[in-house]
Amino acid sequence: MSKREQREAKKLFEKAIAFGRQGTPEKEKAAYDELVNRFGESPDPEIRARVAKALLNKGVTLGQQGILEEAKTVFDDIVKRFKKGAEEQDLQESVAGALVNKGIILGMQLRTREAVNEYDEILQRFGNARQTGVRQQVAKALVNKSAALAGLGKSDEAYRIYDEIMQRFGDAREPEVTVLVAKALFNKALMQGRQGKLEEASHTYEELIERFSDADVQTIKELVERARMNKQLSYHF
Questions:
Q1: What is the pLDDT of residue 83?
Q2: What secondary structure letter does DSSP report for 83?
Q3: Residue 94: φ, ψ to 5°
Q4: d(CA 159, CA 128)
Q5: If you average pLDDT over residues 171-185, what whole number do you get?
Q6: Does residue 95 contact residue 79 with C-beta atoms inside 8 Å?
Q7: Distance (Å, rounded) from C-alpha 85 to C-alpha 87?
């Protein structure tokens, strides 16, 4: 029975993914709903992980549609539904992703302090995780938290978070994480520049360039190029 249910849950998940790629979000969400309705109470670890991912994807789709309150409800459901199983590696990424995405939505709603609380919960629960997908969510939470603190005028705290990102992930090799390290350095340099700390900004841009000049990830290449341009501009202020 379990193997058959695993196949059926996988089939529904793949159906939802296909609808998403086709640009039909209503059908995508309906497929996720069917999966959750049919298998949401399953004790099978593989199916539980599939249900968690289905809910996460549904929440992200709702967010992309601008249906923010419903998206937050879905993210809250993930955290509550899988609270007792959050130690399972296959669930951690979805739970951490739900917290990150809820934080992003709160930031969009200008509820910045609440967003910071969500990011802090991720750090408290998953800060020592070793799984790449979870590490990515932790790094994302730190990058977002630093930006949120800067927006609140707490630049000293934001700088401390940027330093924490480098301490935690500066030697990371996973592309998903190194992208966020590069983004953190770029954001730090931008903040330094806006505060008139042009020499410090130039040094931070240089660090980004030295670290990632040979990167083959497109997003990092673009950040390196922007860093080069911004560094040159800083000499003309």
A1: 80
A2: S
A3: -70, -40
A4: 21
A5: 95
A6: yes
A7: 5
Tokens of 44: 């099978």
Sign for the CA dihedral angle at 179, 68, 70, 77 comes to positive
Q: How far apart are CA 12 and CA 40, in angstroms?
A: 13
127: amino acid identity, one letter: G
- What predicted TM-score, i.e. pTM, was given to this entire model? 0.91
What's the mean pLDDT when you consider all of the chain?
A: 94
CB-based contact 203:219 (threshold 8 Å): no
Neighbours of 120 (CB within 10 A): 15
Residue 235 is predicted with a pLDDT of: 53
Q: Exposed (0-12), middle (13-18) or buried (19+): which is 171, by Cβ within 10 Å?
A: exposed
Quickly tell me which residue has 């190194």 as its tokens.
178
Task: Classify residue 131 by its DSSP letter.
Answer: S
If DSSP codes are grouped into helix, strand and coil, which group holds residue 136? helix
Residue 74's φ and ψ, nearest 5 degrees, are -65, -45
Confidence of residue 234 (pLDDT cuts 50, 70, 90): low
Distance CA 157, CA 144 (A): 13
Distance CA 156, CA 194 (A): 14
Would you list the domain boundaries of the chain? 170-237
Q: Cα(144)–Cα(151) distance, rounded to whole angstroms?
A: 11
Instruction: Please give the Cα distance from 232 to 237 (Å, whole number).
Output: 10
Q: What are the structure tokens assigned to 49, written together? A: 């992980």
3-state SS track over 167-214: HHHCCCCCHHHHHHHHHHHHHHHHHHHHCCCHHHHHHHHHHHHHHHCC
